[in-house]
């Protein structure tokens, strides 16, 4: 009973400061409300946990959740959580191969809050961590960073020869060849981290040589990604290069999404990449197709299953290339996965089966006593919820946070005719935003009733303002 009362008081307190979201599509409205409640119920002692069945120690979870909406909607929680996964605010914590994603989240947090004191310490933490990782995990032969792919800490995410049939551990780091592979998603994150470090250095007035150094390193890793992990003939990316130098032709959804979002690839090549991606009935799967040891009847936990966090980024990448159809499929795919009685049943679960939409944790070894183990799909998964929040904020509302402004690039599919967000705090202002109409072309943009030709507001704006955007 005490637990129920505590949760009620938590939600009541948080909702008293919450933004007010409205939408004429009742399913989208219900799913967004559920996503916000999922985030709020996973806040424990000021730290955002990864989900009902997880704690708050995961660097990538806190970084992605902050980046995907918590920095905007719950900025104090995001800041406390971001520092929670560092070592005395000096270096970023575990797990080593993808923890540099924290840099992206930290810079995004600054763009939203404008807090330069936070940025100054985040820059130190980011620069120290990057220097250490350059010394330990960079492969100078390829010009790429080594280690597993982003978030995929389970061996089910990897084909042979990374996978070893004589090893029954679930953790990828227990496999000796894992440290030598070069993965698409991870190296795209390093690229963006260098870009964001260069931007941080400019804001903080660091020596120009430092900025140029980060920019040059970003350029070099981008060239290496395109040289070793991109196939021009098929307009596709390889998933990884193994310890023997062989490239593996699997579709890594998070990797291709990051490549587009970060601008590793652009123009028609990016359009083709998204347009030709293989997508299941309920959305894109994490890694396609099944590895030989898995199948649709026994799907690998980190293989050909739906991880909604991944779908959130693929939705963002879809809009980056103007593919509203792909975005809409992901939006309503996740809406139904979260809400439908035979699927999530009002629960943003960790993983779903792409064939039937039901929660499915997939198969993966779990020690020598359980070499073929069927895992659970955990409940109330935070980054599944923030993926949906991102689809709303970055997709429907089209929020684009920049150093000196907040720009808008909304998209309303045919199933939605208006969305509205009231009491949205942005730096020193409070915004009431109404988007109405259809499509991705802005017909009229007004602030406090006055029409504007530029679709943005200044980052130094203060007070309460009403923004109305009409689409066509």
Describe what you observe in this structure.
The structure is a single chain. With 472 residues, the chain is an alpha+beta fold. The protein has a single domain (27-401), classed as Alpha/alpha barrel (Glycosyltransferase). 41% of the residues lie in helices and 17% in strands. It is built from 13 helices and 24 strands. It has helices spanning 2-15, 26-41, 59-73, 75-84, 101-113, 116-137, 184-203, 208-228, 253-261, 267-275, 308-320, 324-339, 382-396; strands at 20-23, 43-44, 47-48, 86-87, 91-92, 138-139, 144-145, 182-183, 230-231, 236-237, 240-241, 247-248, 251-252, 287-288, 363-364, 373-374, 399-401, 405-408, 418-426, 429-436, 442-447, 450-451, 456-458, 463-471. The strands form 9 sheets. It has a 6-stranded mixed beta sheet with strand order 1-19-20-24-21-22, with helices on one face. Helix 4 packs antiparallel against helix 5, helix 5 runs antiparallel to helix 6 (116-137) and helix 11 runs antiparallel to helix 12 (324-339). It is globular. Mean pLDDT is 96; it is low at 1-16. One of its GO terms (biological process) is carbohydrate metabolic process. This is Mannosylglycerate hydrolase MGH1-like glycoside hydrolase domain-containing protein. It comes from Microbacter margulisiae. Keywords: Signal.
CATH topology: Glycosyltransferase
Helix content: 40-55%
Stretches where pLDDT is under 50 for at least 5 consecutive residues are: 1-16
User: How many domain modules?
Assistant: 1
Q: What general form does the structure show?
A: globular
Described by strand count, sense and barrel closure, the largest sheet is:
6 strands, mixed
Structural class: alpha+beta
